[in-house]
Amino acid sequence: MLDLNRRQFFISSAATAFGFRLAAATSTARGLRVAKTNQVHSVCPYCAVGCGVVIHTSGEQVKNARPFVVHIEGDPDNPINRGTLCSKGISLKEFVVNDRRLTKPLHRAAGASEWKEISWDEAIALAVKKIKETRDRDFVEKDAQGRIVNRLDTIGMIGGCTDTNEINYLLGKFRFGLGILPYENQARL
Ligand code: SF4
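ok -> structure tokens follow
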């Protein structure tokens, strides 16, 4: 038999009762929140740990409705985090569902003080034009000693921790094809 004094008995009983109800209420609330949602598996974009997340969305099947994110949680099947998320990752929904999130490209022309919203087609066309201009101007076939180097030092590329091996493979092909050497990745791959 447990050796409890009166005070310990009351504390223990209260903790058990409230703990049980809280756990049940939390479980029910979570069940209601994600009921009938679609789930998409993804990766937390914040740091190089690359924890797996499950994004619950709703509204895909509803006419005239825009799909929206209902809930984001750790992916229990992901071997990296096994369902857990740190305090930053747990706030991911606020990162996605946020009025201040940029969803369209912005361009600030040389000498301009204001950013201007442009379309994705305009942004891609502009990037292609700038890459071609820069490569035509700065591509180096041979170094000062006459050795073949075929490099372009004036364009750099950055990647992120959510880039998959396949994306990194294609990015490598793309940049080496252009002669681009500077590369940085948040995950230091
Ligand atoms: S949940 Fe935390 S530790 Fe995991 S990837 Fe996101 S920021 Fe990094």
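The helical segments are 6-33, 92-96, 120-138, 165-178.
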